[in-house]
Design goal:
Layout: H1 17-34, E1 38-39, E2 45-47, H2 48-56, H3 60-64, E3 68-70, E4 74-75, H4 77-92, E5 96-98, E6 109-111, E7 123-128, H5 135-151, E8 158-163, E9 190-191, E10 194-197, H6 202-211, E11 221-230, E12 242-251, H7 261-277, E13 283-289, H8 293-310, H9 316-324, H10 338-342, H11 353-369, E14 374-375, E15 387-395, E16 403-409, H12 413-416, E17 424-430, H13 431-440, H14 442-445, E18 457-461, H15 467-479, E19 484-486, H16 493-503, E20 506-510, H17 512-517, E21 519-524, E22 530-534, H18 538-543
Parallel strand pairs: 1-11, 7-8, 13-14, 18-19, 18-20
Antiparallel strand pairs: 2-10, 3-10, 4-9, 5-6, 11-12, 12-17, 13-15, 15-16, 16-17, 20-21, 21-22
The chain binds histidyl-adenosine monophosphate.
């Protein structure tokens, strides 16, 4: 059988490299704590609609990069009602009337009978539910139908019959109030939810903010996350299909100051601090404002007009975007299109006074804090939810995928997914790219390679009969806080020395004599000295 390999665009992270990953994560957690952020962990998959409504249908992420599947069958009450009313339609046929809908959001359509005379005196409707639906739902259904009957003045013509098994497998049929009972072979109404592996985490955080009513605390929520994200992109250096982000969001009701430009500046200053503490040098903060949603709409129209004469000379994606979402043209990376894009009107010219004032306050605070930035009017970012401040930290060492991190403000996102007004700003950095950048510097090239030096001792049992005693000794030392590697008594002494030399600072020999006398033989690899150490002093000795 062919060997199974990791899927294209995914990778295994192995020691010692994982040590560097952990170091970066630990440094980020420390910085977040100092800026008073708490950790949030949202699910790795969400309802597909969440991303369509937040990141935006027309973005590359949603239109071509999401891992989406339809989740297995579940009982779907609204579908059952739809099927049931379709039966009703079949029997009545004719002009449409709307039945009063007991289920908001589910459209119930039925037709009025063309000719009363053609109907029998009694029409039975059979509805079976599996599993059971609530008594309220059944009553509401019966009522809806009764009302329809009353409105159409067909007394006695219709009779609703409902049969209700108590559970899917149960044959006991329970009478419900206002309902005639008739046994009917239960029909299952399956439906399936569309789910998507998260391509980013902001949408999930805002969903959680709404779901847990965090806005009602009246406080700013400062939340950070560290975790994998998934995009079906073409893999290359620094671009993977499963990649990790370290991100943070500041979100809250306007009364908590969530709209303040100070929040933007604080997040950017924190990022500069974090990158400095990670010893990442040579980054550039690129900064822009995409204005309010009204500004963006206005700019979209300006762009749309400006694109009409030039779009036919651009790539196929740009030709489509020029019509559907002109702003996205600015994301284009096709070299031949760049000169055309550079000549397009800039978003800065479409900002209203408020947006200009907001942006000026952000840059003034950054100037005061000494955080350097470069204005980039083309930086509109590849996600639709941004308003006002947008930014990226780029690094020359990364090649084509040069964005270490990106982010911005998203003042309308909460409302777009059905929540209260909750302006926010946040960022996400590519952990894979941070690791690449750090690995490129000399100090980190051997990151983790000297992890061996952290192993205080290698215990070499002399003969298999010493294995259990060696485990006991290792347990003692490990419980005292030492990092210990445990050998195997089946090894010859030379093999134990070779193995120990590769991974530990010292080797501790444990034979019958050592066990009896309580005096252990310890050899230090760096100095080459061999010592006899009483077992009671071993921890102290190894700690030196
Ligand atoms: P984004 O620009 O799509 O923004 O991604 C942020 C960062 O994630 C990028 O700058 C890059 O470092 C990393 N990244 C993205 N895609 C990949 C990939 N395929 N492989 C490796 N690294 C990648 C967002 O995701 C927004 N949610 C950021 C945000 C938070 N905005 C406001 N709050």
């Amino acid at each position: 059988m062919a060997t199974v390999k990791a899927v294209r665009g995914t990778r295994d992270l192995l020691p010692p490299e994982t040590e560097l990953w952990n170091r970066i994560e630990a440094a980020a957690r420390k910085v977040f704590a100092r800026y008073h952020f708490g950790e949030i962990r949202t699910p790795i998959f969400e309802d597909t609609g969440l991303f369509a409504r937040s990141v935006g249908e027309e973005t590359d992420i949603v239109s071509k990069e999401m891992y989406t599947w339809s989740d297995g069958d579940r009982f779907d009450q609204s579908k059952m009602i739809a099927v049931w009313t379709q039966g009703f339609v079949r029997q009545l046929q004719g002009r449409p009337v709307i039945v009063q809908n007991p289920y908001p959001g589910v459209e119930l359509k039925v037709d009025r009978p063309p000719d009363r005379g053609t109907f029998p005196t009694l029409v039975h409707e059979f509805v079976a539910f599996r599993p059971t639906i609530s008594a309220e739902a059944i009553t509401a259904l019966a009522k809806a139908k009764d009302q329809e009957v009353a409105r159409n003045d067909y007394p006695g013509l219709f009779q609703l019959r409902l049969v209700v098994p108590t559970t899917a497998a149960d044959n006991t049929w329970i009478p419900r109030e206002n309902v005639n009972i008739e046994k009917f072979d239960g029909q299952y109404f399956p439906s399936s939810q569309s789910l998507t592996l998260r391509p980013e985490n902001t949408a999930g955080v805002v969903r959680a903010y709404i779901e847990h009513k965090l806005g009602e605390t009246g406080q700013l929520q400062k939340l950070y996350y560290i975790g994998p994200q998934f995009r079906r992109e073409r893999p290359q250096k620094g671009r993977y299909r499963q990649f990790w982000q370290i991100g943070a969001e500041v979100i809250g009701p306007p009364s908590a100051g969530s709209e303040s430009p100070l929040r933007d500046a604080e997040v950017l200053e924190m990022l500069a601090t974090l990158l400095d503490e990670l010893h990442i040098e040579g980054w550039t903060l690129e900064l822009n404002s995409v204005g309010s949603s009204a500004d963006r709409e206005r700019y979209n129209e300006v762009l749309r007009a400006a694109l009409i004469p030039v779009a036919p000379r651009m790539c196929a994606d740009c030709q489509r975007r020029a019509v559907t979402n002109p702003l996205r043209v600015l994301d284009c990376k096709v070299p031949e299109d760049q000169a055309i894009i550079e000549a397009l009107p800039k978003i800065t010219e479409s900002l209203d006074q408020e947006s200009k004032k907001h942006f000026a306050a952000v840059t003034a605070a950054l100037d005061a804090a000494g955080v350097a930035y470069k204005l980039n009017p083309r930086l509109v970012r590849g996600l639709d939810y941004y308003t006002r401040t947008t930014f990226e930290f780029t690094h020359g060492g990364l090649g084509a995928q040069n964005a270490l991190l990106g982010g911005g403000r998203y003042d309308g996102l909460s409302e777009a997914i059905g929540g209260p007004k909750a302006p926010g700003i946040g960022f996400a950095m590519g952990l894979d790219r941070l690791v690449l950048t750090l690995q490129a510097t000399e100090a980190n090239q051997n990151a983790g390679a000297d992890a061996a030096a952290n192993v205080a001792a290698y215990i070499a049992p002399l003969g298999e009969s010493m294995n259990a005693a060696a485990l006991v000794l290792a347990r003692e030392l490990r419980r005292a806080g030492l990092s210990v590697e445990l050998g195997d008594g089946s090894f010859r002494l030379k093999k134990s020395f070779d193995a120990a030399d590769k991974c530990a600072r010292r080797i501790v020999i444990l034979g019958e004599d050592e066990l009896q006398s309580g005096i252990l033989t310890v050899k230090d690899f760096a100095s080459g000295t061999q010592s006899k150490v009483p077992r009671a002093e071993l921890v102290n000795f190894l700690n030196q």
